[in-house]
Design goal:
The complex is a heterodimer of chains A (145) and B (972).
Chain A: E1 2-9, E2 14-19, H1 25-40, E3 49-52, E4 55-62, E5 65-72, H2 78-96, H3 101-106, H4 108-118, E6 119-120, E7 123-124, H5 129-144
Antiparallel strand pairs in A: 1-2, 1-5, 3-4, 4-5, 6-7
Helix pairs in contact in A: 4-5
Chain B: H1 9-20, H2 24-41, H3 49-64, H4 73-79, H5 85-98, H6 110-117, H7 122-135, H8 141-150, H9 157-173, H10 180-191, H11 196-211, H12 222-233, H13 249-263, H14 267-286, H15 290-305, H16 310-325, H17 329-343, H18 354-362, H19 366-379, H20 385-398, H21 402-419, H22 423-436, H23 443-460, H24 462-476, H25 482-499, H26 504-518, H27 525-539, H28 547-557, H29 563-584, H30 598-606, H31 618-622, H32 650-659, H33 673-676, H34 691-695, H35 704-718, H36 722-731, H37 745-767, H38 778-789, H39 799-811, H40 847-850, E1 869-871, H41 876-885, E2 889-895, H42 901-911, E3 914-919, E4 922-929, E5 935-942, E6 947-954, H43 957-971
Antiparallel strand pairs in B: 1-4, 2-6, 3-4, 4-5, 5-6
Helix pairs in contact in B: 2-3, 3-4, 3-5, 4-5, 5-7, 6-7, 6-8, 7-9, 8-9, 9-10, 9-11, 10-11, 11-13, 12-13, 12-14, 13-14, 13-15, 14-15, 14-16, 15-16, 15-17, 16-17, 17-19, 18-19, 19-21, 20-21, 20-22, 21-22, 23-24, 23-25, 23-37, 24-25, 25-27, 26-27, 27-28, 27-29, 28-29, 38-39
The chains are: A alpha+beta (145), B mainly alpha (972).
């Protein structure tokens, strides 16, 4: 299962963090720090997978923002999760129109909602962008009224 | 949209400033200031909900950036009760971000969640389900189960989808909430849902059930899954599910995972899968996008996971080679992993990629290297092992990544052990490995290596011994790392001392080399302990001469501050004293027939003493070392066995010890190398001999427990427990050093095994070279011993079985009277009781205890009888085994005087055999002919009217007849 999904920028600042297994604030900080250092130490040509603290880590960089997924070691298809990250980014992009780090910052709750629609209980439940965004649009509409 | 114009200026500025920070300190400063402001604002009454909303968003930032915002957690809970859909969702989101599943605050949410789950507003229901999925915990899973299950049939697909996922969590939290059948029905309805989203969610649930092992009950669904996959790859789903024009890839992957589990080791199921699998792979292969590769990879995993099919394997191998040939490391990574999968089925596909694999090993990408190592490890066989190991050692030499090196080290040693072509190659590789990976040598590695060496030594013999002693003494001339020095010390001490037992020059040379090492720069004091142990072992060699030097060294280290060193020095010093003394008395001969007593015997006879009666069991003991053990055996010995057999019944040596004058213990004395090593299995927890117990060895000849203790000292060192000893002795003052701290317990068994293998085989090779290729250890000892004494029995030998069965018997075998000082074979097994000497006939009422207590009997022969019997203390299992082996069964039903158990016992007592077990009116007994030792088993069933059914099973049919006649005469 997926244990966490993070968005951390090159400066090591966490922009979004969703954990599917509870970790204390302190544990999260340490883990995120270590992970971003590891990701930053890797070059473009190296593969996007690594192991850290018993997690299988899959990461992908978009401009200055790293998307990091931490999974159980037994989880088997790294490439599928790498593409899942891309699907997440495409979905964010569809919603925010040309998404950037600041979009996520100013709308952090929305970014969370989108993730909540895509992953439940550490498993991918939805990859259809229309389906993912439908409930979010409902929220937006409800607020507008 | 990134303007943030929808936010209040305050929040907007905060987020902007966080975004602009360039250091962690700067960020912290902003957050700490914000936390203080928030705390004061909390006191405001009637805060508008919009304000609460902003406060919570700030709290999300505060916690995300590593600070505590627990003071607003309660506000998040309040917000979930909001009438506004958006605020409600934010409330739930914050709860799930902030609260642990064990949080007490969660209980406040239950009522709200229950209400929202039953709301008529579908959006509220969706919000609530999302929240339940994250927040549900064991404590209130029951309260929410029912409303969630109801939602599985909701008219909106997103509700059904989420309800399914929540149902999965409910079952994970509490199995009892949903009955298994009910659960299966509900997920089956899930995959039959007309909405692909719901169906896709249900796949997760199936996959989880299958991973948990419930494969068989879902096998009938294979067809359903196959047709779903078929529909997906044929673009039957709405194009919204496409990803880069590839149809529902994540659903395909999930289905492939499910099919892999269903088809594993099952040809029938796999046959249903082959076709769709081939098509899926072809279609995925046709794409050149990442997601296509992901599906290809999953197909390959499926192909190698289900029952193998040749054409699919070829197809998979082709796809894999495309991955491997790619420049992209992600694809290479997939390729290597996929190849690892395929290799487990067929090695041939690896060949064409050898160079790629080597390239990957040299890659600068740690992840790739690690996976490649795994692959290499899996594909190594006898043919390629030399090359692969050389390559791996090269990496060990050059790598600077310690995790990678450790991994390499472990894998190389495993491969070397498994596939090394020759002994020489094995040793040399091991030495290189130790040289470059000395930091990874721990107790396990060492013990394992020693075990292999000693096994080989026993198999091949002195040739190998000379060979490794040469190699290691050569090593001694260099500067060595401590970890390697320890190994060298062990080899020289354990094997060198045996090989050059009679060669004073060689021994001197080795001793000199070892002593020199004491002056070299050592990393830790434990190494000194190893060196001391080595010296102690060397000085036990027969031709050892340098006692002065060793004694001086031991004396020096008796002052050592390291307790372990000190203790060993004291022990070895004491030993050295005895050793030297013993060497001096080397040539005293002992008269095994004790003719020096003749005059005395003559004198006593003249005074009217009874003549010596050789038919008594004492005979065996009196004859001393030249005779067979007087132990009670169930197998008849032929007379020729007496005096002839020296193959290792422990009684043999024992007799020597007891019959000899303790002051002249040279022949079989404990310090004689042969005797020294003989059949003294290590006790379960070796303890270093304290000076007290060393002292007790003064009575060498008469106290064999002294030997056991001292030898143990060396074993415990040989097994490499020193590191731990020292740690312990440094941390706390322990008067008598215990080399086995509790921490070591998990390894105890392994160590015992090692210790057994260190010892038992040595004596065996010396006595029975022909058997040295057998598996070593106590088991074989016992077995071979029994087999030897079995030679003259009528039974055809079934070596394999016999060894096992006999071993069982061996352990509890009754010991003779004289064996009171016998080291107990099999002590390390922990269940053998100390032999007890019972001089009187066993009293039948005591049976319960007697079963397991080996006893011995000297029974005077009843006057009118020609044959006499002695009881055999065996247990029911042994009885049954013996019964199976003996085929001379005499069956008879008599009318007798025996009408009660008491009568029956009387009869058994008269025969003088032993009752093994009584079940109602059935009794089984065992005994042996006092003279021939042939075994007699008796089964009797009496009834109140005097009818007596007997089955007598004896090795010698005459015994059965005799006993039957006796019973007829006296009890009918």
């Amino acid at each position: 299962m997926i244990n966490f999904i993070l968005m951390v920028n090159k400066q090591g600042q966490t922009r979004l963090a969703q954990y599917f297994q509870f970790l204390s604030v302190k544990e999260r900080m340490t883990l995120e720090g270590e992970l971003i250092r590891k990701c930053l130490s890797r070059s473009e040509t190296q593969c996007s997978f690594l192991e850290h603290r018993g997690y299988k880590i899959i990461y992908r960089r978009y401009a200055s923002l790293y998307f990091i997924i931490g999974m159980d070691l037994e989880e088997e298809n790294e490439m599928a999760y790498l593409e899942f990250i891309h699907n997440l980014v495409e979905t964010l992009d569809k919603y925010f129109e040309n998404v950037c780090e600041l979009d996520i910052m100013f709308n952090i709750e929305k970014a969370h909602y989108i993730l909540e629609e895509m992953v439940m209980n550490g498993q991918i439940v939805e990859t259809n962008k229309t389906q993912i965004l439908a409930p979010i649009h409902v929220l937006d509409k409800a607020k507008d009224e | 949209m990134s303007s943030g114009s929808h936010l209040s200026k305050e929040l907007h500025d905060l987020i902007k400033s966080i975004g602009e920070t360039r250091s962690k300190q700067e960020e912290d400063k902003i957050i700490i200031k914000e936390v203080q402001q928030l705390k004061t604002k909390l006191n405001e009454k009637n805060m508008p909900q919009k304000k609460v909303r902003e406060m919570l968003i700030k709290a999300i930032y505060i916690e995300m950036l590593g600070h505590d915002a627990s003071f607003v957690h309660i506000n998040a809970i309040h917000l979930t009760q909001s009438k506004s859909l958006a605020l409600k969702r934010l409330g739930y989101l914050c709860c799930s971000l902030f609260l642990d599943n064990d949080s007490e605050l969660l209980i406040l949410l239950v009522a709200t969640l229950q209400k929202d789950l039953t709301s008529t507003n579908v959006h509220i229901v969706v919000n609530a389900l999302t929240a339940v999925g994250k927040l549900i915990s064991k404590t209130f899973v029951n309260a929410l189960t029912e409303p969630v299950l109801k939602l599985l049939t909701h008219s909106t697909d997103i509700v059904r989808k989420k309800a399914l996922m929540v149902m999965q969590i409910i079952r994970q939290l509490n199995q009892d909430c949903i009955a298994e059948q009910d659960y299966d029905d509900r997920i089956r309805r899930g995959i039959q849902d007309k909405e692909p989203s719901v169906m896709g969610a249900a796949f997760n649930l199936y996959h989880e059930e299958l991973k948990k092992g419930a494969v068989n009950k879902f096998k009938p669904l294979t067809g359903t899954f196959v047709s779903m996959l078929k529909q997906i790859i044929e673009h039957k789903l709405h194009k919204d599910y496409d990803y880069h024009r590839f149809p529902a890839p994540w659903l395909q992957i999930k289905l492939l995972q499910i099919l892999t589990l269903l088809g594993a080791n099952d040809l029938k199921v796999s046959e249903q899968i082959y076709e769709v699998l081939g098509t899926t792979l072809r279609r995925a292969d046709d794409t050149t996008i990442n997601i296509g590769y992901a599906v290809t990879y999953q197909c390959v995993k499926c192909i190698s996971g289900i029952y193998p099919q040749q054409s699919l394997l070829e197809q998979a191998a082709n796809s894999v080679s495309r991955f491997l040939k790619s420049e992209n490391n992600n694809l290479k990574y997939l390729g290597i992993n996929a190849l690892t999968q395929i290799v487990s089925i067929s090695q041939k596909y690896v060949l064409e990629h050898q160079m790629t694999i080597v390239d990957c090993l040299e890659s600068n990408d740690d992840t790739l290297k690690k996976e490649t190592l795994e692959l290499l490890y899996k594909m190594t066989n006898e043919q390629n092992c030399e090359v692969i190991i050389q390559k791996l050692i090269h990496f060990l030499k050059t790598s600077s990544d310690s995790n990678f090196k450790k991994d390499l080290f472990v894998k190389i040693s495993l491969l070397n052990e498994k596939h090394a072509p020759t002994q020489e190659w094995f040793i040399k590789t091991a030495n290189t490995l130790f040289e470059y990976g000395s930091e990874f040598i721990d107790n396990d590695v060492r013990n394992n290596f020693f075990k292999l060496l000693i096994d080989n030594f026993n198999d091949i013999g002195s040739e190998f011994g000379v060979f490794i002693t040469e190699i290691y003494s050569e090593l001694l001339k260099n500067d060595l790392q401590d970890n390697i020095l320890k190994i060298v010390c062990w080899v020289i001490g354990e094997i060198g001392s045996q090989i050059y037992d009679q060669d004073p020059n060689k021994l001197n040379e080795l001793t000199q080399l070892i002593i020199l090492k004491l002056d070299s720069q050592l990393e830790s004091e434990t190494t000194i302990s190893w060196i001391l142990t080595c010296l102690a072992k060397l000085q036990s060699a027969r031709a050892f001469q340098m006692f002065d030097q060793t004694r001086a060294i031991f004396q020096k280290y008796m002052q050592s501050k390291n307790l372990d060193c000190q203790q060993r020095a004291i022990d070895f010093y004491t030993l050295a004293k005895f050793n030297a003394a013993l060497k001096g008395s080397q040539f005293i001969t002992v008269d095994p027939k004790m003719q020096f007593l003749d005059a005395y015997v003559q004198q006593e006879r003249q005074r009217g003493a009874q003549p010596y009666n050789p038919s008594l069991q004492v005979k065996a003991a009196a004859l001393g070392s030249a005779t067979e053990a007087p132990s009670l055996n169930f197998i008849p010995y032929s007379d020729t066995k007496y005096g002839g057999n020296k193959t290792g019944t422990f009684g043999t040596e024992e007799n020597k010890l007891t019959t000899q004058n303790p002051s002249a213990p040279t022949i079989a004395g404990p310090w004689d190398d042969t005797g020294y090593n003989q059949k003294q299995p290590p006790p379960p927890k070796p303890t270093i001999a304290t000076p007290m117990s060393i002292g007790s060895t003064t009575g060498i000849g008469s106290n064999s427990s002294g030997q056991t203790t001292t030898k143990t000292t060396m074993q415990s060192m040989g097994s490499g427990q020193m590191g731990l000893n020292t740690n312990q002795s440094q941390s706390t003052y322990v008067p008598s050093v215990r080399p086995l701290p509790p921490k070591e317990d998990p390894n105890l068994k392994e160590k015992q095994k090692l210790a057994n293998q260190l010892f038992a085989p040595i004596s065996q090779t010396q006595q029975q070279p022909s058997q040295s290729t057998q598996k070593k250890g106590i088991t074989t000892m016992a077995a071979s011993k029994q087999m030897n004494s079995n030679i003259n029995t009528n039974q055809p030998q079934q070596p394999k079985q016999t060894a096992q069965v006999l071993n069982l018997l061996e352990i509890d075998e009754p010991l003779p009277i004289q064996s009171s000082q016998q080291p107990i074979i099999g002590t390390s097994q922990g269940y053998v009781q100390q032999p007890q000497i019972i001089n009187q006939k066993p009293i039948i009422a005591q049976q319960q205890q007697l079963w397991s207590q080996p006893t011995a009997q000297i029974q005077s022969i009843p006057q009118q009888q020609i044959k006499s019997y002695i009881p055999a203390n065996i247990n029911v299992d042994q009885y049954e085994q013996l019964w199976e082996r003996n085929q001379n069964i005499k069956e008879i039903t008599l009318q007798s005087k025996i009408k009660s158990e008491q009568d029956f016992r009387k009869m058994i007592q008269t025969i003088n055999i032993n009752i093994i077990e009584v079940i109602d009116q059935e009794i089984i007994c065992a005994g042996a002919n006092a003279e021939s030792k042939s075994c007699v088993l008796l089964y009797g069933s009496y009834s109140l009217n005097g009818s007596l059914e007997l089955k007598i099973n004896s090795t010698d049919p005459k015994d059965a007849e005799y006993i039957l006649a006796l019973i007829k005469r006296q009890f009918c």
